[in-house]
Write a structure and sequence with these properties.
Blueprint lengths: L12 H20 L6 H9 L20 E4 L2 E3 L2 H11 L7 E4 L5 H10 L4 E5 L2 H13 L6 E4 L12 E6 L8 H5 L1 E11 L4 E8 L5 E9 L9
Parallel strand pairs: 3-4, 3-6, 4-5, 6-7
Antiparallel strand pairs: 1-2, 7-8, 8-9
Helix pairs in contact: 1-2, 2-3, 2-4
């Protein structure tokens, strides 16, 4: 059965859920063959039902390894990219994490599987997406994730400092406010660039200076807000 058949194979809801579980297992095995993806990242992806975060008319594609539209011109990231970002951020239990771009809430849920839901703070530009994400996350047991509506370029200073911060949409440059809101030894990660985007990691040293690394080209929707 292909991705496009995911909602056709069962006669009731339980059969449909079994199809989704099987497809999620298949996706995880597919990603397991990628050297850049750790078992810990895969375990976090395996724990989160991606089909619950996509629009109903796109659920048949929920476990295809690709982005999907979620409204307001935004997308849910491809699973392999979420896993790569989990690894590049070097997430650990108990860390406080700032996410810029809640979207549908999927990436936040994956992050919460590692650091704990109460340690995830997410900023969403579109109030409609933020409202839906809050509801969806609460229904799925991630209600302790904190979400606010605002311009992600400004971060969320009320809960700073953060151990980690990441973008789910591309910015022209690393937002200064996010680096300022990181703890010493904190890590920022996000797609940076206009025509050409690169996944960039910035480590904040104890003296406040930063070290920058790049991990190749990526393609994300544009970050909203800013000047």
């Amino acid at each position: 059965m292909g991705w496009w058949d995911s909602e056709r194979g069962g006669s009731d809801d339980s059969d449909g859920e079994s199809d989704f579980e099987r497809q999620r297992d298949e996706l995880i095995e597919q990603l397991r063959g990628r050297e850049r993806v750790s078992d810990r990242a895969l375990a976090a992806l395996a724990a989160v039902p991606r089909h619950e975060f996509v629009p109903e008319n796109k659920r048949r594609y929920a476990y295809a390894d690709r982005p999907l539209p979620i409204g307001e011109g935004q997308t849910i990231s491809a699973p392999h990219m979420v896993a790569i970002m989990v690894d590049r951020l070097e997430l650990e239990a108990g860390q406080t994490v700032l996410e810029i771009g809640t979207g549908c809430g999927y990436h936040a849920a994956v992050t919460a599987e590692i650091v704990g839901a109460a340690n995830v703070y997410s900023v969403e530009y579109h109030s409609s997406l933020a409202e839906r994400a809050r509801s969806r996350l609460a229904e799925l047991g991630y209600g302790d994730i904190s979400i606010t509506v605002g311009d992600g370029h400004e971060g969320w200073p009320e809960h700073a400092p953060y151990d980690r911060a990441y973008l789910t949409a591309a910015a022209s440059s690393v937002p200064d406010a996010l680096l300022e809101q990181l703890r010493p030894d904190g890590i920022f990660l996000g797609p940076i660039g206009d025509r050409r985007q690169t996944l960039v990691r910035v480590r904040k040293r104890p003296d406040g200076e930063t070290e920058r690394e790049t991990f190749g080209g990526v393609r994300f929707v544009r970050m909203q807000g800013g000047r």
